[in-house]
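pasting for the record
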Amino acid sequence: MTRTDLRKSYEILELPDSASLREVQNAYLRLRKLYAGSSVALAPLEEEFSENTRRKILQQVEDAYDKLRSALNGERTNAKAGGAGERGDTVPELDRLEEIVYSGPVLRKIRERVNLNENAVFQELKIRTELLRALEEERFEVLPQVVYLKGHLQSIARLLGLQPDRVVEDYLRRYRDWKDDRGKE
């Protein structure tokens, strides 16, 4: 990949060439949120930003993010060459998301892999860090009612770029299994 390709990707994400992986991820999430669905910010400009135009922009944002993420992850991997891998044996490969069963620990590992700390999740989604920890640690006994839990899981999945329905389905299956086991005691 040429430096020109990367420069164009930085421009699409509205970032300087010196942006870190974290800055790239934050810009990607911000732009995806802006151009996806019916953004309040774009409502007054709806005629200029048709659904087709928004889809094209979103595709450019996705492509730019993929290029920069690959390039920056490659730099981090090269910098750590020879040491222990950053990924543990149980960390899912983000390129194989369709094979993952989403549990609390898996969601935490994905969140960490995309460099989002608990405070960033709170700032973006207004989910308290204590609740996020309980969700990721699968401390089911302290989680809110299913209707609220489902909403939190959907929000987290969207923030992480995952399929909300799959995340909710997998996580709630684990929650219901825990609840059923608890009822048998």
